[in-house]
Amino acid sequence: MEPKDSPTPDPTTADEPLDTSRPFLRARGVGAGITPRRLNGPRFRRVFSDVYVSADRPPDELERIQAALLLHPAGARASHHSAAALYTVPVPVDPRVHVSVPDADQRRWRPGVMSHLSPAGIVPWRRSGLPVSPPDRLMVEMAGLVDLVDLVVLGDALVRRTGWSADRLRRVLADCTSYWSGRARWAAGFVRDGVDSPMETRLRMLMALAGLPEPVVDHHLVDADGVVLRRLDLAYPVPRVAVEYDGRHHVERIDTWLDDVDRDAELREERGWILLKVVSRGVYREPDRTLERVATALRSRGVEVGPLSPAYREYFPG
User: Fold this and answer.
1) Architecture field, domain 198-314
2) How do residues 229-247 score in pLDDT, each as one tens digit?
3) Most buried residue among 2, 99, 160, 282 by CB atoms closer than 10 A?
4) Residue partners of 203: CB distance under 8 A and separation at least 6
């Protein structure tokens, strides 16, 4: 068994050639025959104090996380923003590398590295060969750092990336007693399966916080044989009202735009749907107008929609 405070194992051992394309500890490099003078020369680049890598490797986030983990004892894991980066899920930018350890004396302070104390017993997942916080723990970690909408964006993306269902995320969080777990559970209550993009989440949260009826996420229109003809981001199937976020990629290619025009016309003219397209301006700059458009469309199809709640303005001030 490795000592409690042993460093995170270097990918190579003393019996193997040193792979300088991956971050390595200074002591490991010297042990492999690289003199301190060469380490400080143009062939190598220092990532953090005592951690180096070949200068031929372009800097990236993965390299910095690998290097930060090398500084910490075995049992450390990438957490917070760094775990999100390894899952490739969206969170607000933080230039620091975040690492969590189970014991306070295992934290290692360096410029650009943030060490956190984590409850014992967290079983890491692995992404890109590195230990990371599991999805439920990542939700709790980020609950103290981002607002409700960003936390739901994270949850929707984690569900899509990890294969967990939204229900499973909620079940696992139900047993968590960490300080921020209540806020993580609150956000998880809004997480849904089948969400395609962060902006789709933001549009849905705008509607939810305003008190509009909840739409169906990723609604499929099928023919008599069950073949999917069209997928709708957010849909009210009975009144036949659909709301879709229209990102820039939909108009940058003329063939994509023409295909969308044809599908939208078929949806409206042949199937009787009201289709509301929303762009980023309708979420960030004109949320009031977007909500009124949705409410008006629903009322026109006989859906009772009460006065809008002002709760959305905390997150979507316009």
Assistant:
1) 3-Layer(aba) Sandwich (3.40)
2) 788 999 999 999 999 998 8
3) 99
4) 233, 234, 243, 245, 278, 282, 283, 290
